[in-house]
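In practice, a research group might receive sequence data for several interacting partners and want a quick structural hypothesis before committing to experiments. The following worked case mirrors that situation: the sequences arrive first, and a predicted assembly follows.
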Amino acid sequence: QVQLQESGPGLVKPSQTLSLTCTVSGASIRSVNTYWTWIRQHPGKGLEWIGYIYYSGSTYYNPSLNSRVTISVDMSKNQFSLSLNSVTAADTAVYYCARENQVDYDALDYWGPGALVTVSS
Amino acid sequence: QSVLTQPPSASGTPGQRVTISCSGSTSNIGINTVNWYQQLPGTAPKLLIYRNNQRPSGVPDRFSASKSGTSASLAISGLQFEDEADYYCAAWDNSLTGRGVFGGGTKLTVL
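A structural hypothesis for the assembly, expressed as tokens:
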């Protein structure tokens, strides 16, 4: 079955860059009409859509984060990654990677368990 | 402030029917489909409803949803203790360059 797993540092210093990788198993990053997505959830708060990438490299980002975020894909490793620069305490959150399946659902049908990233000196 | 508006809380007793509303605008719910996610405590969200009113395999038919204009709603009938969770509506928003948007979430308490 499809599984996603986030990995990366759990602690990042202010002004530095947050980097997370999502490893996908049970599905190919090259799947058509499938968009690989990052979402975050601030402690005790709701969900915030960060952006997604298509295997071709096309990306869509949340305009509120657009200037600081980059999502990339590594097809050889079946992974996609999130980079968020100039972080502050406001970027402390659980970060989820997920699959947007536009073939069957037009929705996020598989999610990783989430990775807590704390921004603190 | 979330782009989609949900009530922060809802409650019911076992066996009851509860509904959760989700209000949007002409740039999101008005022209795009709505999905609903269930987030049990300490876990990742799970797809509950897709394309306004469709249930993925494995989701009980106690869960139903609808959309009208710029609003949507989720209904849970025959409420069970295991339904206690946070529920989020979501849609694509065509404003600016386009982005996914979520509601602020509704915490459902089963009394």
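Before designing any experiment, note the following. Chain A has a mean pLDDT of 96. Chain A touches chain B through 23 residues (CB under 8 Å).
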